[in-house]
């Protein structure tokens, strides 16, 4: 099947630091693709490349048959949950409305059509009952459902999700990830799901891109999430334990400390 | 001075009909500025720029004072000052924290410059005072035309960028992902804000400009979350404050600004009370499933 996202020979560097190099990747429609790795491994930058907000150092990124571009209507973007201020002058439905026509110039003139679309989207994510509630009074999970509805407004072929479950409770994590999976299976959208924790979506994930220490590994969770592969990526002894269909990685080097030593090394090299 | 004479100075309605004819231009100017302030104010609130408005107005005051000193057009001087300040903030302060510290640095500098220019100025003292507290009473037809023309231009640009600016103000990250030129819109809005501040200073003065650009929108946001209702109420509140303020001030011997700012403040207080009463009742538009069941 034709891929909807395709990277070839893609490299990303910041200064002297290489985030990843020579990445070849094809993501198919209807595939749930997780991007994992420690902080600073370039997960978010990976999404920024697909959004057209970050240039590759080398190689090519194709989305929907064309080089990636800013503001593509093929993409739906779901960010990390960040609460809206309590006095935000928007109701739930207005947040969804931003996804429908927020990028257009001028004022909204065709209200009836837009409102119908907003109602449909609210229905899809099960937010109809709080459609008119001020967004600042909604819980984090409710706000995140609205983000999903907002991202679905253009019937996207690719859903880019940047840690969408962060700071949600377990119940809402399940609800939101099920919604994203539904779009993936029923509408055949490809999902690129950036997360530091695979377990909330472990039942849905088809393939994994694991980024660590300037290197990467692509494959099914069974192939990638193993003691051998991760120990190799991290260049230290990491143990992967599977229990009750969940995956626990033990002995991860602390990403922040890792960073510091790295920076120190750089500083010494420069000096 | 006894209470009666104080009241007489504040409120006097002798020969009201004749006075009303004389201040027609001022009333129009007040209405236009109310409309502008109400519209721009909603975005000032959404973008959390209340403090920026204050900073811009101080530099606008410095520009006006300089123009007064060298005998140039005061409105032009204040326009230069405020647009320069707005651009500086728009280009430099990307993060809110950054922005606030830059404003904190600019504001006293602008005010200091203004005071310097005013002390050097040898002309009428009323002109000096007017820059800080406003002087809308003597608006001639030409001034009114310039004011109206500029306001129409600002509103036209604002309407043209309304939806993407709204998106960028509420959720810059997602807006950027959708291809909205977030940064450019931010700078454009700062220019619009700079011009609006310069125009508003003519009515309420540099010190009180917040009453036109913040208070009405803040009051509206207390009583509604509907985007359309917020804008409509904000404009209604701002126009009520300016036009109402001018009408009340007619007979008295006091500048217009205290009337405008007091009206504006009272509207805010009422809205706040109404808003918190509603919040306490818990009615926020949620349709409870339980209420549907028998």
Gyration radius of chain A, in Å: 20 Å
Number of domains as seen in the coordinates of chain B: 1
Q: Helix-strand pattern of chain A, N to C?
A: EEEHEEEHHHEHEEEHHEEH
CATH superfamily of chain B: ABC transporter involved in vitamin B12 uptake, BtuC
Strand tally of chain A is 12
For the biggest β-sheet of chain A, the strand order reads 6-7-8-3-9-10
Overall body shape of chain B: globular
What profile does the largest beta sheet of chain A have? 6 strands, mixed
Tally of strands of chain B: 0
Low-confidence stretches of chain A: 255-271
The total count of helices of chain B amounts to 15
Binned strand content of chain B:
under 5%
Shape of chain A: globular
Looking at the chains present, what oligomeric state does this protein adopt? heterodimer
> Would you tell me the overall average pLDDT of chain B?
87
Q: Which fold name fills CATH's third level, the topology of chain B? A: ABC transporter involved in vitamin B12 uptake, BtuC
Radius of gyration of chain B: 20 Å
User: Which structural class should the secondary elements of chain A be placed in?
Assistant: alpha/beta
């Amino acid at each position: 099947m034709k891929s909807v996202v395709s990277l070839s020979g893609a490299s990303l560097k910041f200064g002297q630091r290489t985030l990843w190099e020579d990445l070849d990747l094809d993501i198919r429609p209807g595939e749930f693709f997780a991007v994992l790795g420690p902080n600073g491994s370039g997960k978010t930058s990976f999404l920024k490349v697909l959004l057209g907000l970050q240039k590759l150092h080398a190689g090519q990124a194709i989305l929907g048959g064309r080089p990636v571009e800013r503001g593509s209507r093929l993409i739906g973007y779901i960010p990390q949950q960040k609460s809206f201020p309590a006095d935000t002058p928007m109701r739930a439905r207005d947040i969804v409305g931003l996804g429908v026509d927020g990028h257009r110039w001028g004022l909204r003139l065709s209200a009836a059509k837009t409102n119908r679309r907003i109602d449909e989207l609210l229905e899809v994510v099960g937010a109809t009952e709080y459609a008119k509630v001020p967004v600042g009074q909604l819980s984090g999970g409710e706000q995140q459902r609205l983000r999903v509805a907002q991202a679905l407004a253009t019937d996207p072929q690719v859903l880019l999700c940047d840690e969408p479950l962060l700071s949600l409770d377990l119940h809402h994590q399940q609800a939101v990830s099920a919604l994203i999976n539904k779009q993936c299976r029923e509408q055949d959208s490809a999902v690129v799901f950036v997360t530091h924790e695979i377990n909330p979506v472990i039942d849905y994930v088809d393939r994994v891109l694991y980024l660590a220490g300037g290197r990467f590994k692509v494959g099914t969770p069974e192939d990638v999430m193993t003691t051998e592969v991760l120990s190799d990526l991290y260049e230290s002894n990491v143990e992967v334990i599977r229990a009750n269909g969940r995956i626990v990685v033990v002995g991860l080097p602390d990403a922040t400390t890792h960073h510091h030593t790295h920076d120190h090394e750089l500083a010494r090299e420069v000096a | 001075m006894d209470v009666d004479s104080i009241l007489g100075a504040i409120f006097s309605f002798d020969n009201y009909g004749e006075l009303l004819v004389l201040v027609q231009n001022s009333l129009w100017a007040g209405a236009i500025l109310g409309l502008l302030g109400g519209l721009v104010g909603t975005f000032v609130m959404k973008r959390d720029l209340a403090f920026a408005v204050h900073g811009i107005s101080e530099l606008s005051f410095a520009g006006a004072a300089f123009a007064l000193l060298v005998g140039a057009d005061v409105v032009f001087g204040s326009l230069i000052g405020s647009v320069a300040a707005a651009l500086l903030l728009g280009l430099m302060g990307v993060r809110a924290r950054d922005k606030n510290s830059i404003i904190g640095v600019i504001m006293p500098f602008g005010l200091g410059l203004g005071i310097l220019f005013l002390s050097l100025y040898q002309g009428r003292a009323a002109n000096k005072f007017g820059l800080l507290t406003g002087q809308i009473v003597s608006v001639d037809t030409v001034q009114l035309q310039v004011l109206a023309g500029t306001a129409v231009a600002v509103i036209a640009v604002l309407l043209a960028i309304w939806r993407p600016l709204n998106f960028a103000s509420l959720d810059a990250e997602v807006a950027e992902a959708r291809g909205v030129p977030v940064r450019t819109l931010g700078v454009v809005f700062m220019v619009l804000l700079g011009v609006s501040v310069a125009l508003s200073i003519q009515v309420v003065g540099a010190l009180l400009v917040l009453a036109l650009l913040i208070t009405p929108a803040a009051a509206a946001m207390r009583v509604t979350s509907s985007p359309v209702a917020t804008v409509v109420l904000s404009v209604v509140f701002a126009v009520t404050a300016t036009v109402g303020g001018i009408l009340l001030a007619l007979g008295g011997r006091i500048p217009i600004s205290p009337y405008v700012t007091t009206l504006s403040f009272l509207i805010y207080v009422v809205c706040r009370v109404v808003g918190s009463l509603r919040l306490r009742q818990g009615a926020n538009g949620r349709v409870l499933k339980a209420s549907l069941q028998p």
